[in-house]
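User: Thanks for the earlier help. One more: Cyanocobalamin reductase / alkylcobalamin dealkylase. Can you show the sequence and predicted structure together?

Assistant: Of course, both are below.
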Amino acid sequence: KVGWYNAVVQPAFHLPYPDDTLAFVILSTPSMFDKALIPFVKKERSKIIRDPVDQCISYHLSRVKEKFPDQRVDVMFDYEILPSRKPKFLAQTAAHVAGAAYYYQRKDVKHDPWGKKKIYGVCIHPKYGGWFAIRGLLLFPDIQVLFLEQPAPVDCVSTEEKRIELLEQFNFHWQDGRYRDIIEVKERYSEEQRVYFATPPAERFRLLGLTQ
């Protein structure tokens, strides 16, 4: 429910819908690259002008909208920003309140070692660890779900020691991706996908055989 999200974020980030409005958080799993992105690039090669991943997600979510011709469906993407330069929604908070992934933050550590350093939080999925991404929200403004029960996200990094290790790796060593394997995972990004996301955005077109 939109109300679960609005209850835990600052008013500036509130979604402008009634509390009982139905919303879905969209995640991409490790297989997205091979099952969605590569076929999309091959099919839409001439139309890709921006970011191939963003355009691929947009394409697939527009197809989801088409499945509900009698419903109003609003889509928000993780990369969209407001005129104030703030994101349209806080993706990790949305994933947490929906029960999709646990958003580990500094407040989840009782005795943290970081002093005055800024520490960013990170979502971990019980099946994919850090090998996934939050891509957007699907909102159904005309559907009110009064009796929907809120699922708790799975607390899969449950010890103080592991949480410190996770936040340490994510904040200070994120490039090596070790934080993604803080738990045992069922699936990881393919080697091709790792290379793609490790490459500066401007050079990614070449990896997919595209001219920018």
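User: Great, one quick takeaway?

Assistant: The CA atoms of residues 16 and 67 lie 24 Å apart.
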